[in-house]
Amino acid sequence: MIELKKVSKSFTKGGKTISILKDLDFSLIKGESVAILGPSGSGKSTLLSILGGVLLPDSGEVIINGTLINNLNEGKRSDFRINNLGFIFQDFRLLPHFNALENIAFAKEYLSGKNEMSASKELLKRVGLEDRGNHFPHELSGGECQRVAIARALINQPKIILADEPTGNLDNHTGEKIINLFFNEVSSSDTNLIMVTHSRELAERCDRILELKDGKLLA
Amino acid sequence: MSLALRFSWRYFKNNLAINLLFVLTLIISSLGFLIINSMRTNLLAQVELKTKELSGGDIIISSRRRLQASELKRMTRLFNSHQYSQQMSFYSMVQGKDASKLVQIKGVDELFPLYGTIKLANGEFLSGRQLENLAGIYVYPELMDSLNLSVGDALTIGSLSLKVQGVVEEDVGQSMRGVNLAPRIYMPFSLLEKTGLIQFGSTISQVISIKLNNERDSQKLKTILEKVFNDPTIKIKSGSQAGQDQFRFLESTLSLLGLVGLFGIFLASLASLYSSFRMIHNLEDDFQSLKLMGIKRIFRIRILLGIQFFQMLISFTAIMALFFIIQQIDWGSGLVNELLKGLELRAVITLMVTFSLIIITGFFMAFAYQRKTPYFKIIGPLFLLALSGQIAFMQTNSIKMTIIFPIVLLGSSFVLYLLMTLFLRLASFLSWPIMAERWIDYLRRNKSLTFPFALCLGLGVVILNTNYILFRNMQEEIRFNPEKLPAYFLFDIQEEQRKELYALAHEKKINLEQLTPMVRGRLVKINGSELNREEESEDLTVEEEAEKRFRHRPVNLSFMDSLPTNESIVEGKWFTQKPQTPEISLEKRYAQRLGLRLGDRMEFDVQGVRVEGIVTSLRQVRWTSFTPSFFIVFSPGLLEDAPQTFLGVIRALDKNKASSFLRAMNNVLPNISYVDIQRLVKRITDILLKVVDAVEILSILILFSGLLVIVFIYALDKIIRREGEKLLLMIGLGLKRLNQLWFFQNYLLGIISIGSALFLSLGLSYLAVTELLQMTWNIDSLAIGKILGLNFFLGLAFLFPLCLIFRPRPLN
After folding, report:
1. For A97, nearest residue in chain B (alpha carbons)
2. Residues in a beta bridge with A87
3. C-alpha–C-alpha distance, residues B412 and B83, integer Å
4. Chain B residue with minimal CA distance to A95?
5. Are B617 and B766 a contacting pair, CB within 8 Å?
6. CB A155 within 8 Å of CB A186
7. What's the whole-model pTM score?
8. For tag attachment on chain B, is the N or C end more exposed, with fewer CB atoms within 10 Å?
C-alpha cells in the first residue's frame, strides 16, 4: 500500500545542512493504522509531507498504491493527493471564507465541477454538525472545527488519511470525543491512517506505533 | 459562479475595507490619467477637424499657379462622384474711401466651406452660396479698422466695386499658430475674373478641396491623383496630413501634464504592490491548505486573478461613473467641457490596460519578493520603470518622454532616498530620549518601510511643489506682466519705410520695437548633402513628425549684428566681425531636431540664389516673451542684398491708441500689413492657466494617493510590528508611551520625507524652469511660505488619521 525506501531529507539553514530523515524505510499494509511518535523537530511533519507528496525526498523512493511519487510532477502529485489522501491538522486549516458545509464540499466540487452538497450534508450529519452547516469557521468552536476537518478529509473517500496532531489544539474532553469520532469514521470507511502525535495514549489506538528518532523509524 | 471565482469574491468581500481602499487608490491615481487622456483625445480630434477646416477637405489639391481648364477637367473626372469646392487666392491692393491696403483676396465657390464654418460678427455664418447670391464681399475686422469701413461701404477691388456685406469674426482658416500676412477678403468665385486682377503672370494659388463620400477612399484617391499629376507645382494632401502643427503647443502641454498623471499611476503600482503583499500574506495559509488537499497551482492562480478581477471591475466601474459625473459638471469654461466630452474607446482600453498592468506589476513584484527571487531588488524596480515607460509611451506617443519619465522617476526616487538617509543620519546625531533614539535607529535600519513611506509622501509633495513653482514662474511671465505681451505684428515693412514708421510710432506714443529683417528661404543642403523629401508616413512618433516638419518647411531667415534681449547664447560664440565664411546662429532646439552642431554647413535657396553658412552658435529663446525670433540668423554681410521685408512688434496698448496708430500707418504706409495677435495670445494664456489649475488638482490627487499607499504600508507593517509591540507592552512599556513613540516615529519620518521632497522639488523646478521653459528661476519668500505651509499642512494633517488608525493597541 505505502512503501518508503531509503528516504533521506535534509534542509539548509544558516548555511548549515540539517539531516531530518536518513535512509528511512517504512511500509504500510491495506487497512492498517500507524502512529508516529517523536520529539519536536524530529521530522514527523516532514515525513508526513513526503508521504503526502507535498515534499520530495532528496533520495529514496515513495511508492503509494504502486505509484512512484518521486516521478510525478507537481500537477500529478496534486491529482494523486486529492484522489487518494485526506489531511487532518492540529490547527484544522479550514478555509475561513467558506462555511462548514462548503469546506467539506470544496474538494468534491473541485473534482466534479458540480455544486453537489448531498454527500457533504451526510458527512456533516455523521460528525454531528448537521445544524452548523451554514456557520463559518470563526463561528465554530475548536472541536467543531476539527469535526468539519475530519469530514472534509473523508469527502473524496481517500485511501489514506494523514493526521498531524489531530487533538493538539483541543482540551482533553473535546479531544477524546473527537478522536473517538475520528477512529470510528476511519475504521468504518476502511481507510489507512498515518497519524503523527506526541501522545502515546492516542498512538496506542493505532495498530502499530513507530518512533522517529535520528531520522529513522523505530518500531 | 465557479469555485475559484467564488473563493475570490468571498476573499474580496471579507477584506472589503482594504480592497475598497485599493480601489480608491486606483481611482484617485487614475482619474487624472483618464482626464488627461480624454483631453488629449478630444484635442487631437479637434486638431483633425481643425485640420480639415483649415485645409477645407478630406483631400486638398493645391497649386501655386492657376490650373488650366484641361487640367481641371482631367482632375474633376477622377473625383466628380464626391463633393468638391474650388478656391483661388492672391494678394492685391484694394481701395477704400480714402486709403488703400494690401489684402489677401479669396474667391470661393458655392460649396465652400466643405468643413467648418465662418462666423460673422453679427453671429451669422457665411457660406459660399450666400456670397454668390449677394455678390458682395466679407472682410476681416483689421481691414474694417484700417480703412475706416462700415458694413455697406464699397471697396474697390481691381475694376469692381463691391459692397462689404459683413465682418468675419472666426474664419475656418484661423489657427492657433498661423497668422496671415494680410487681412482676408472673401468674394464669390464667379466675380474673380471680373476684377481684372487675374492676368497672365499673376501670383495665384488655387485650391480644390474634396469631401469624400467615404473617408476610407482618401489614400486611394490621393495615390491616383499623385500619379496623374506628377507636377512639383501641384501638391496633393490628405486632410489628416495637412496642418498637423496646429495645436501642437497644446498637445505637448497636455503630454507634459499626462506625465504628471503618470506619477499617480506609479503610486498606484506601489499600492498594488503592498495590496498584493498583504493578499499573498493573508492567503498563504489558505493556499497551503489547498495545496495539501491536492488543489492544483492553476486553481490558486485563478483565485488570485479573480480577486484582481473584482478589484479592477469595481475600480473601472467607479472611475467611469466618476468621470461621467465630472463630464456633467459645468466647469464654467466651454474649453474644459469641450475637452472632457465623450469617451473614446481607446481611452477605455488604455485605462483597462493600465489597470491590468498596475495590478499585474504589483502582484508580480510582491510574489517575486515573497519568494525571494534572485536579483529581485534589481529586477523589481526595473520592471516598475519599464511599466512607467510603457504607460508614458501610451500616453504621449513620444520616445523622448518615454525615456525621460522613467529617468525622472528613478532620479527623483534616488535623490529622495539619499536625502532621507542623510536627514535620518543627522537626526541620529541629535540628543533624544533613549526610546526615541532606538526608534530612530529602527527607522534607519528598516529601509523597506522608510523608503516607500518617503516615496509615497515625497513624490506627491515634489509634484505639488515643482508644478507650483514652475507655473508660478510662467504666470509671472504671462499673466502678471500683460504689458510684455505683444498686441500686433507688423509685416511687409520695406527698408525705406522704417524711418517713417518709427517717427509715426513716436508721434502716436506707441512702443514700436526694433524692426527685424526677414528673408524667405528653404534649406537645401546640410554639410553638402541634399535634403530628400521622405515618403509620407502616417505612423510617425511625435519626434519624427517634428523633425520632418522642421526639415522641409520654408524658413524665415534673418540677419543681425547683436543678440536680442530675449535670447542668449548657450553654445559657441556670437558672430565675429567680418567673418571669412558667413556665420549662422541657430535656435538650440531647432538645431537639436535637425541634428545640427557647431561647425556644420547649411545651404539655403533664397529666391533661386544659393547661400551657405557655417553654424557658429546655438541660442536659447525665451518663448514667453512672444517676440518674433528666428530659428536661423545669419551674420551681417550676406543677406542684406536679398529680397527682404521687416517685421515689427507693438506691445499691449489700449484699443483706441492702437486704432489711431494703425489708421495713421495705413494712410501713410498702406502696404504694411498688421495682425492682431491679442486673441491668439489670450487663447494660449487661457489654456495655460487651465492647465495650471488641472496640474494643481492632479498634484493634490497624487499626494492623496501617496497617502493612501502609506495605508497599505502601515497595514502590512502592522502585522509585522504587532509581535514587537506585544513584547514591549509585556515588559512594561505603557501603551501611552508606545503611542507617543509611534506618533514620534511617523511625524519624524513625515517631516524628513517632506523636507527631502522640498529640497528635491526646488532642484527639479529649477531645472524645469531654466532648461525646459528657458526662463529665469524665481522664487520669493511668499511662495516659499505657501509651499512650506501647504506641504506640512497637507502632509502632516493627512498623516494624523493614519497614525490614529494604526496606533499600537492594548494587549488582548
Report:
1. B10
2. A162
3. 56
4. B286
5. no
6. no
7. 0.65
8. C
User: Contact, B212 vs B82, CB < 8 A?
Assistant: yes
Residue B458: predicted pLDDT: 83
Residues B508 and B501 sit within 8 Å (Cβ to Cβ): no
What number of other Cβ atoms are within 10 A of residue B380's Cβ? 18
The reply to whether A12 touches chain B by the CB within 8 Å rule is no
To probe the interface with B, which of A87, A110, A148 has the most B CB atoms within 10 Å?
A110
Q: Which residue of B has its CA nearest to A50?
A: B292
pLDDT single digits (tens) B445-454: 887 778 888 8
Query: What secondary structure letter does DSSP report for B771?
Result: I
How many beta-carbon pairs under 8 angstroms link A with B?
A: 56
User: Is it true that the peptide bond before B113 is cis, omega within 30 degrees of 0?
Assistant: yes
List helix spans (H) across B329-398. 334-340, 345-370, 376-396
CB neighbour burial string for B478-492, b if at least 16 within 10 angstroms, e if fewer: beeeeeebbbbbbbb
Give the pLDDT band of residue B40 (cuts 50, 70, 90): low
- Cα dihedral B475, B477, B480, B486 sign: negative
- pLDDT score recorded for residue B240: 56
Alpha carbon distances (Å) from B350 to B96, B353, B354, B357: 57, 5, 6, 10
Say if residues A28 and A34 touch (Cβ distance below 8 Å): yes
A95–B7 CB contact, under 8 Å: yes
Question: Which residues neighbour B276 within 8 Å (Cβ) at sequence distance 6 or greater?
Answer: B359, B362, B363, B365, B366, B367
Q: Are A56 and A70 in contact (CB under 8 A)?
A: yes
Question: What is the grid cell recorded at B805?
Answer: 488608525
Rounded to the nearest angstrom, the minimum Cα separation between B305 and chain A is 17
Q: Rounded to an integer, what distance in angstroms lies between the CA atom of residue B684 and that of residue B677?
A: 11
Number of H helices, E strands in chain A: 7, 10
